[in-house]
From TrEMBL:
Keywords: Methyltransferase, S-adenosyl-L-methionine, Transferase. This is S-adenosyl-L-methionine-dependent methyltransferase. GO terms for biological process: methylation. The keyword Methyltransferase applies. It comes from Mycena albidolilacea. The keyword Translocase does not apply. Pfam families: Dimerisation, Methyltransf_2.
Length: 458
């Protein structure tokens, strides 16, 4: 006789299958309506939709598909099978991927679209062919590269994203290098009686691995030999922003309501990846880009002259170096925009940044914090304007693996700089302590925005 629990489990399986089917059909229709065909994994040329921002329904469908597929497999497969495959063995993947990146195998394979034998690949990159074949075979089984025939490999839709000309290449070197290496000391760091309870940036697993006595970004900035590492990270962040479609903020936030000549300060904007998007989409906005001196020099002399020379010619962009913890931002801007900034710092340092902005604001100024906002499994009974959208049942409220990036990034920050992603409540509390009042939470696809204004002075 079936129990109510048995019936509930069966109902959940049916609901997950329905979500998967509906999401897949939505994505298939989106591709066909947008270009007339669905991309093949074997394609090496970009699909026409690849370079465009995903429509909200497409983004939602991908999150539902990934979340439901992962939950279905975790439900139906034997638990020891899932733990072995999804948690233990995947630790090898970043190291195999690093081989492909450092050897620039995707670039080599571009010379023979039909496939290249591993003997030739090995000769070109200086790696023993039979060992290289085993690594490429594992990656091909994960659909990154394709094994055309035994020991002959070619690029595919995923591996061409790893070409050295793609900013994701730089991101991959960072993630499979600093992040993966630092993560090997995560358990040891958490167990350390001094470092484990600490939130100082010098008590990160990265510090434990490298033995460096200063925070990672400071180490890069203060050591000439590491400047290239900082530049690579800056380029990698362009790749990250493109992959997570951070540019959704350009269309989802009402920038045009600011009016002609409005000023937006992209604070900590690196070389200006997002500011470039804003400059192209909203030519009436005047932009102020502020970051460390090295990034400002790189932005002004290398990146913007190539990517957005019209903004320079029309004097719509100003470059000004800043140290968050010493200098105040440019005063009187209409919007102070912080993308992926506060997550890199402890609560006390975030307050220093926000209080500095508060001092620079005019009464009508806004602060837009563009970050991942952590969703927990419990949604609570909160007003709609004070919480993010929940996934449909029976998925986890936070979409599970459909929005897994926020949790990966949260742990990555712990590993590299001993910082964190935050919940909406934590951002609201930070703002209030800095003299800023919560206005609205925005959903920008993967990422979200917290809009704040100045509290009235007593």
């Amino acid at each position: 006789m079936k129990s109510s629990t048995d019936n509930q489990a069966a109902d959940q399986i049916s609901s997950l299958l329905t979500l998967i089917n509906e999401a897949a059909r939505t994505l298939q229709a989106t591709y066909i309506n947008g270009s007339g065909f669905v991309p093949s994994l074997d394609d090496t040329q970009p699909h026409p939709l690849d370079g465009k921002l995903s429509a909200p329904e497409m983004k939602e469908a991908v999150q539902l598909l990934e979340g439901a597929c992962a939950q279905l497999c975790a439900t139906l497969a034997r638990p020891n099978h899932t733990v072995l495959n999804k948690f233990f063995l995947t630790a090898l993947e970043p190291n195999c991927l690093r081989v492909a990146l450092t050897c620039q195998i995707p670039d080599i394979l571009q010379e023979k679209p039909s496939g290249m034998h591993v003997t030739e690949i090995g000769q070109r990159c200086g790696v023993e062919p039979s060992k290289l074949a085993r690594i490429l075979r594992l990656l091909s089984a994960k659909h990154c590269f394709r094994e055309v025939e035994r020991d002959t490999f070619g690029n595919n839709r995923l591996s061409v994203q790893l070409l050295a000309s793609n900013p994701l290449y730089s991101l991959g070197l960072h993630m499979t290098g600093d992040t993966t290496e630092g993560a090997t000391k995560l358990a040891e760091t958490l167990a350390d009686p001094q470092w484990g309870p600490s939130f100082l940036p010098v008590h990160s697993p990265w510090n434990k691995f490298t033995g460096q006595p200063m925070p990672m970004f400071d180490f890069w900035a203060q050591n000439p030999d590491m400047h290239a590492r900082g530049e690579r990270f800056g380029i990698g962040m362009i790749g990250w922003g493109t992959a997570v479609e951070a540019a959704a903020v350009v269309t989802a936030y009402p920038w045009s309501d600011l009016g002609p000549g409005a000023t937006v300060c992209d604070l900590g904007g690196g070389v200006g990846a997002m500011a470039i998007q804003l400059a192209r989409a909203h030519p009436r906005i005047h932009l102020k880009l502020q970051d460390l001196p090295d990034r400002m020099l790189q932005a002004e002399t290398e990146v913007w002259p190539k990517a957005c020379p019209e903004a320079i010619a029309e004097k719509r962009i100003q470059f000004q170096a800043i140290d968050f913890f010493v200098d105040l931002p440019i005063a009187g801007c209409d919007v102070y925009y912080l993308k992926n900034i506060l997550h890199a710092f402890s609560t006390s340092r975030c307050l220093t940044i926000l209080k500095g902005i508060r001092k620079s604001m005019k009464p009508s100024s806004r602060v837009l914090i563009h970050e991942y906002i952590l969703q927990t499994a419990e949604s609570g009974d909160k007003p709609a304007n004070k919480q993010l959208k929940n996934a449909p049942a029976p998925l986890l409220n936070n979409y599970g693996e459909g929005r897994i990036r926020q949790y990966y990034l949260d742990v990555s920050l712990m590993v590299l700089v001993n910082s964190q992603e935050r919940t909406l409540e934590e951002y609201v509390e930070l703002g209030e302590e800095a003299g800023l009042k919560f206005m609205k939470v925005w959903e920008f696809g993967d990422m979200s925005g917290v809009e704040l204004c100045a509290m009235e002075d007593n």
